[in-house]
Structure prediction request, 303 residues.
Amino acid sequence: MNFSFEQLLAFVTVYNERAFSKAAVKLNKHRTTIGQVVTNLEDQLAVTLFERVGRTVIPTEDGEFLYHYAKQTIEHARTFDNVALSLSFGAMENITIAYPSFVPHGVLANMRIQLAKEFPLMRVNFIVCNQQELKIGINDGTIDFALVNTHYSRAMNSIDASFLGHIEFLPFVKKGGRLSQLKANEAHAVLSTERQFILKSFREENLQDKILLSSLHEEVEQLALIIKLVSMDAGWSLLPKIISASEYVTDNIEAINFSEMTEGFKFAISLWCPHAKSNREIKQTIIDSLKMSALEIRDQFKS
Prediction:
C-alpha cells in the first residue's frame, strides 16, 4: 500500500484543526486540495477517517486509531530529514539555547564558558522560554538546544531528549529576617498565610498546584527579582536549592525547614535538541558542563 507524506500530513492537520478549511490555512493549501488529498487517502486505505458535519469534521473510530500512527510516522520522517540534512553540514557557527526562568544564571554562565573553550568561534544566544515555546522553537529550528522542565510532559519522537536529573526547590526567606526564626513544626502554617512569590513560568506549565502553598501569592517573571524581593523581607518563595551556591544568595536569603516536608519539591530536567550530526559534540559539552556545575554545588553543600 502506497501513501504519501503529504496525505499523512493533511490527515493529521485536519484531525487537529477539525475542519478542512482551517487545515488548508495551516498548510497554505486550497480547501478543496486538502479535501481531495484526505479523500484519496481514505480510498487507498478503504477506511473512513472523518464524518463530514457541515464545515467541520469528526474523526471516526478508525480515524482516532490511525491518527496516532500517522503522527508518529510524520515525526519519524522529519527526524530522518533533519539527520540526512545534518550529514552535509559541518560545525555550527551560531546556536540558540533556551531555558526556563528558574535555571540559575551561574549554571548558564558555566555552560557558556565551557562552550567557549570547546568552540571558540561559535556564537551562543540564551533565551528564556516556557515549555510550549520550547517545543515550537525546537521544531521550527529557531532553538537548537533547550533545558526543559519535563515534570508533566514527555519528549516527541522528533526530538533528541536526554534526561539530566532533578532540580530541588526549597522555601527561602530573608536571612535573619522575621520568617527565618520559624520552627520547623510551625513553618508550614505561617508561610501559608504569608506572601509567596512564584515564577510565572510555573503557572504557564500548570505546576501551580504543586508549588502554591499560600493563598496570598504573586507572580514574578524573573528569578533574580524574586530573590531580591525575598532578600528585602517582602515575602518568601520556593527556589532552586542550587542557588545556595551563590555568595549573594547565601548573604541575603536562606532556606528553612518544614516538618511536613522531609525534602524539597523536585522537577525533572531534560536537554532537548533536534536529531542532527552537528549537534553531537555541542550536546555532550552542554551535558558535561551541567554535570560539572552539579558536582561543584554538591561539594559546596558537603563543605
